[in-house]
Amino acid sequence: MLAQQRPTGDPAPMPDRDPVIDLVRFFCLALVVVAHTMMVSPVLHPDGTVTSENTLGDQHWFEPVVWVFQIMPLFFVAGGITGLQSWRRLRARGGNAFDFMQARLLRLIRPAAVLLAVMFVGLSAARLAGVDPQVIELLTSGAGMPLWFLAAYLAAQLNLPWLAALHTRAPWLTFAGLTALVVTVDCLRGVLPLLAYLNMLFLWCAVQQLGFIVADGPRLLPGRPAHLGIMVASNMLLGLIVLLGLYSGNMLVNLNPPNVTLLLLGISQAAALQLFRPVLSRIASVAGVRRMLGVAGRRSMTVYLWHLPLLAAMSGLLLLTDFPQPAGGSAAWWWGRPLVLLGVIALLLPVVALFGRLEERPTASGPSPSRPAAAVLLAAVAVFVPAVNAALTGLTPGLLGGGAACFALAVVLLGRIPVRLTTPPDGQGGSEPPLPRPPLSANVEP
């Protein structure tokens, strides 16, 4: 797991997966799916209008709970750990930054392109069939949240090669510089509100940088007893700025656009990851858990992208029936949440079986050159234009169609990942397939 120093001073590539990160990602994804089933609550009013309420987010008791279970920073810490390892492996195989961008874009946008296309066709058909436009709007908004995360995660990952170079030269100075940018944007957001969205890049790159620090282990981190102190200190500072009224205590409010509270949470969660690593490692080493993580890891992006649209679709379609619709937050509503979760899982199973294979790394059947840098950059632009638009203004049926077209264009521009970038540098393996044998881990990436 830990990087060894090469004679040149660069850390050696780390070929082995980290089962702890598999476990952490699985926990985070499961928590997101469960939490969303408690948040989405469409309401059909007597006058025929339809609105969507965040029932869980509106509960006052939920604020301290979400402080603990706001795990979005942990996603980016894990992404930093695996991304740095993947980048070092790619460099050892002769790859460059554009190869890394090509691989990352393909891994994430192929499943997303299909989601947008299916939603656009399905909702267009529903509109032609006479479904109320408000219900269409409700269903469309279901894909908005996955897209903002995709845009933020891609932005951080596509900047990873040069941030990794800065990390190699001055890890703590790089992290301090990104933190300073986050704080500066927060200080200016009152004057220029739109400036706050710059932290979609600065903040998540800073949290990703925490993953770099964790990945390099003892070379940068203090001993395990200090991790508890880091957790306490970061949460005390977070509590102080909330008590002073500088930020909201609701971490859902602080999420979009993100602010420095999520960086403090990221520091606490990165420290917790290291503090509890021995326990997590023992759990992840159990044979049954390991098999489950292998299966789940191969389809994690599909589950993330599809669970909320399927939840919104199921909730919206139920409004068209005589099925009981208890008031959000009532006892009947809470008792119905397990059934909603089971319904979402039942809908996810065929979707994952049908579209999950798109997450497997696309490789050419023979030697092929890397894509030109201009093609990779143009593909990135084609992805970010609709994704950023959806994150800032919300998703619309028109944007669904445009986004699907842009994502499909990006896939065409990116082509397929060359085999030479997915096989060992020494050429061993003969006719063996370029992909690792199943089960693939969530953090085994090109």
Quick recap:
The protein is mainly α and 446 residues long. 65% of the residues lie in helices and 2% in strands. The radius of gyration is 22 Å and the shape is globular.
Characterization of the model:
- A two-stranded antiparallel sheet has the order 1-2.
- It has 17 helices and two strands.
- The protein is globular.
- 65% of the residues lie in helices and 2% in strands.
- Helix 9 runs parallel beside helix 11 and helix 10 packs antiparallel against helix 11.
- The protein is mainly alpha-helical and 446 residues long.
- 43% of the residues are buried.
SSE topology sketch:
Layout: H1 19-37, E1 40-44, E2 50-54, H2 62-69, H3 72-92, H4 97-128, H5 133-141, H6 144-158, H7 160-169, H8 171-188, H9 199-215, H10 224-243, H11 260-275, H12 277-284, H13 287-298, H14 300-318, H15 331-355, H16 373-393, H17 397-414
Antiparallel strand pairs: 1-2
Helix content: 55-70%
Radius of gyration: 22 Å
Q: Between the first and last Cα atoms, what is the distance in angstroms?
A: 17 Å
> Can you count the beta strands?
2
Individual helix count: 17
SS class: mainly alpha
Order of helices and strands: HEEHHHHHHHHHHHHHHHH
**Strands in their spatial order, largest beta sheet:** 1-2
Low-confidence stretches: 1-9, 363-368, 424-446
Q: Averaged pLDDT, please?
A: 81
Q: What characteristic shape results from the CA principal axes?
A: globular
Strand portion, in percent?
Answer: under 5%
* Biggest sheet overview: 2 strands, antiparallel
